[in-house]
Amino acid sequence: MKQPLRLALAALVLVLPIAPAGLAQKLNSKFRQFPAIGVEFKSLKDFSDVPINDRLGSLGIVGQMDAARGPYVKGDGGGGMEYPPGLKVLHIEPEGPVTGADEDPRKRRDTRTDAKDFVEQLFGGTIKGLKDPEVEEFRASKGVECERSIFETKRSTNSGSVGDVPILIDVYTFLQGQGKMIFIWDYPAESKVRKKWEGVVEKSMRSYREMKRGASDEVIPEVDSDSSYEDLLRAHQADVDQTPGWQLVETKSKRYLIKTNSDDKKDIDLVIKRLEASRKLYEKDFPPAAPITAVSVVRICATRQDFNSYGQTGGGVAGYFNPRSEELVLFFGESGKALTLSVMAHEAFHQYCHFLFNRSEAHRWFDEGHGDYYGAWKMKGSKLTQEDDMAGGLARIPELKEMFRNGTIKPLSQHIRYSHQQWQTQGPSNVSCYAQSFGLIYFLRMGAQRKISSKYWKKEYAEIIPNYMSTLHQGYLDAFEEIRAEAQEKLDGLDDGEEGGDRDKFDKAMADEAQERLDRPWDFVRPYKEDIWEEAMKASWGQIDEDEFEERWLEWVENDA
Questions:
Q1: For position 110, which CATH number holds?
Q2: Do 202 and 89 lie in a common domain?
Q3: 165 and 74, same structural domain?
């Protein structure tokens, strides 16, 4: 989840040219409201709301909507495709007090409120040849002032047969108090299609108005997973209330909060049941040093399209845990519930480790290998039972055996020490890294349970995982203590200074950073990570003969895996 901000291309669907050229749209009869801001407008009937993820939210995006279908357009590669139009809505607040000549937001030029900068950030490398827009004045039905910026550009489809398709990015910037509301539409630029979509978008924008009751004065607390349950419940309820069709579901344990747009209660109950059972298993295998009080947020999308639109992901992603937002994201897809539950168990382990290691990182062989290991367990009644591998397209052992036959298994000494990027790109396929790590973890876990033949297993191998985990955990705790001690020393040494002076501003900035280090030391632990990882490897793999282990493990892969 460290990709640059971009619009997903997953919604651009290759189809036969059967869709009507324009797919004429109509306005909704009801207004789409933004209660926290106090404005509303009529969106389009074919558009559905998509929740805002953390990346888009950090830009000030308060709403996004996607068309279910779109007009058929031709690209410069000769082929054609269906292009579903979309909309992003941003709210830009003034940065500090505005006085004198600067009180008109149109005269305040900064990169956060410039339409072109936002278009470049949102679309990233998917658009080509972006030029300065045509700009014109526009007025909504209630006389609200607006500036309209029109960009004609091309967008990449990642399809050689289609190539780039011409699109229009239609940006409406409304003055909202001392801030701005910015609506960024994208739709095909082919002349006949453009004419129809321009017309309906203009109608939508003319409906923009302030709500009669004004902006809500309710103050929603800023929260993270360690906030009180009451504050979390209030904040996450306010979040789902911003997106029509979504709801918040509590669990009896109060360890999870579920956000979903699925109306299938049986499916939701099934996920909650598996979450709770998996959590007990994680805690049994990796008991925390202190009770984990953090509440885990799980978002379950009703369809893959919802999932892709929310996460800006492509077709190869089946679920993920985002360590920045601390949210686990899944979908009920066309592959069935078994796949959803396996992916959920895998990603839920990442979420558990995130809190187990105080938001710090382990090597990929450990966390991804264990994710697949737990993903292979199945629910039977109210209990989890262990299986040898995940089902269907997620199975890892066939891939591992194929790697063995082809001689593409990476040397053990490299695989277990890879950085995240090295691990992810080790090849030869995009799942080879998962298969090799799963094979190692399965061998270590089964051997510790005396389920691996003594031909391959030695009793000292049973200490690899426990020693790795305990040393890693203690290493991070020691680093946090050092970070906090240095921050407290800096705070104690700062003078108050005189109000308004340069020294005072400098001291305040230093104090704010020191306080952040006290509150969130894990955000500053990166300089310590390599040393912590090295010590964890010495305490675990360093206590055995790695060459002998590798020889025994490969023999097991060939004969018994």
A1: 3.40.1000.10
A2: yes
A3: yes
CA 408 to chain centre: 31
- Integer Cα distance of 391 and 340 in angstroms: 11
User: What distance in Å separates the CA atoms of residue 344 and residue 329, rounded to the nearest whole number?
Assistant: 8
pLDDT, the chain, mean: 86
HSE on the CB side for 319, CA within 13 Å? 31
Largest CA distance in the chain: 83
Number of independent structural domains in the chain: 4
Pair 475, 532: CB distance under 8 Å: yes
Interatomic CA distance for residues 300 and 262, integer angstroms: 7
305 with 434, same domain: the answer is no
Alpha carbon distances (Å) from 199 to 37, 168, 323, 529: 26, 13, 42, 55
For 314, which DSSP code?
-
343 and 420 housed in the same domain: no
Which pLDDT value is given to residue 20? 46
Other Cβ atoms less than 10 A from the Cβ of 259: the count is 21
SS3 99: coil
Task: Return d(Cα 450, Cα 50) in angstroms, integer.
Answer: 49
Q: Which segment of 1-15, 111-125, 318-332 scores lowest on mean pLDDT? A: 1-15
CATH of the domain at 246: 3.40.30.160
Structural element, H or E, at residue 229: helix 229-241
259-265 long-range contacts (CB < 8 A, ≥24 apart) are: 259/51, 259/297, 259/298, 259/299, 259/300, 260/299, 260/300, 260/301, 260/302, 261/301, 261/302, 261/306, 262/300, 262/301, 262/302, 262/332, 263/302, 264/302, 264/332
Local structure of 285: helix, strand or coil: helix
pLDDT in tens, 474-520: 999 999 999 999 999 888 887 554 444 455 666 788 888 999 999 99
- Under DSSP, the state recorded for 227 is S
Check whether residue 282 and residue 243 sit in a common domain.
Answer: yes
Question: Range of 121's domain?
Answer: 32-210
Amino acid 336: pLDDT: 67
Question: Which is higher by pLDDT, 9 or 425?
Answer: 425
- Looking at residue 177, what is its pLDDT? 66
Same domain, yes or no, for 431 and 508?
no
- Residue 350 sits in the same domain as residue 409: no
Sequential DSSP letters for 295-309: PEEEEEESSHHHHHH
Q: According to the 3-state scheme, what is the secondary structure of 354-405?
A: HHHCCCCCCCHHHHHHHHHHHHCCEEECCEEECCCCCCHHHCCHHHHHHHHH
**Residue 18 pLDDT > 90, yes or no?**
no
pLDDT digits over 176-195, tens only?
766 889 999 999 998 888 98
Query: How many other C-beta atoms can be found within 10 angstroms of the C-beta atom of residue 21?
Result: 14
